[in-house]
Amino acid sequence: MADKILVAYATRYGSTAEVAEAIGDELRKAGDDVDVLPVSDVQNLSPYRAAIIGSPIYMGKWLPEAQVFIEQNQQDLRSIPVAYFTVGLTVADGGPEILRKAEASMDQVRMLVNPIDIGIFPGKLESSRLSFTDRTIIKLIRAKTGDLRNWEAVRAWAETVRSRLVPA
Fold first, then answer.
1. CATH number of the domain where residue 98 is located
2. Total number of domains in the chain
3. pLDDT at 1 over 60
4. pTM for the whole structure
5. What is the CA radius of gyration of the chain?
6. Would the N or C end of the chain have less CB density within 10 A of its end CB?
7. For 120, how many CA atoms within 13 A lie in the half-sphere containing its CB?
């Protein structure tokens, strides 16, 4: 019987992985059995009664590995409650247009599996860790550097989404 919750993520530099771990920790505190895994490590969805899947926003979209994971597993994912979360540097300002664009980053995966909820969180940027190409992109979009993540918001969302994932 499926009794675990999966928190699966794609990440480029580790910020989204840390957000996924925080979500998993919050679910564990509530008593749930949780696996937090990169999407590339998920081989079988049968142990899971629910899934939370996340990716950073990169060039206005989710990372390809997160999109491919949902596409390849859409039949199984449609049979359980699924929530999505995304992490992006530009969402720190939180204006309506910025949040609309962050939601749009999930359009492709939302067409495959419609989530019961979505979370949108600011990320972390350490420019010293970026590739030359990514540093150039960051300069072009004038993204803020530093750790902009709001751990209280991440934990609050995890608690809220849990109530929608887990039957009372």
1. 3.40.50.360
2. 1
3. no
4. 0.87
5. 15
6. C
7. 20
How many of the other CB atoms lie within 10 Å of CB of 118? 16
SS3 content of the chain, % helix, strand, coil (to 5): 45, 25, 30
What token pair was written down for 32?
């749930």
Tens-place pLDDT, residues 70-106: 999 999 999 999 999 999 877 777 778 878 888 888 8
Tokens 């992985």 -> residue: 17
The domain in which residue 158 lies consists of 4-165
CA-to-CA distance for 168 and 152, rounded, in angstroms?
24
pLDDT on residue 30? 93
Angle, helices 151-165/15-29, rounded to nearest 10 degrees: 50
Q: Which stretches within the chain are classed as H helix?
A: 15-29, 64-72, 74-77, 96-104, 107-112, 132-141, 151-165
Do 92 and 122 touch, CB atoms closer than 8 A? Answer: yes
Contacts of 128 (CB under 8 A, 6+ apart): none
Q: DSSP label at 13? A: S
Backbone φ and ψ for 50, nearest 5 degrees, come out as -160, 160
